[in-house]
Amino acid sequence: MMIRSTDSVRPQHHSDPGWSRVVSRLLAGPRDGCNRISLRRVDVQPGGHTPRDTSPSERVFLVLSGRGECVDPDGFASEIGPGDTVIVLPWELFHLQNRTAQDLVLLMASGPGK
After folding, report:
1. How many Cβ atoms from other residues are within 10 Å of residue 19's Cβ?
2. What is the pLDDT of residues 59-79, one digit of tens each?
């Protein structure tokens, strides 16, 4: 068993194409012996967004704080807020965006590669 403080995990500032103002922390993954699931904290800062992306495995997001939008392949934006769960199926195209003045903070569970 391991117990780790989120603040003890070094943040990764995403700067690849399609990413804007997003910071994540890998809280649990293969380096910890988690070979089938990874858990990340994802902070989408005001005006930020993730790239339009797909994955071979499902991803599940839990909104911890803030408000934002989850955008489907057709460009339809669904509002998300604290307590909401977003389930993204394998190969489903989507992205997250934050058009507010506060950080959108989420937990993301996914396959270990993402």
Report:
1. 18
2. 999 999 999 999 999 999 999
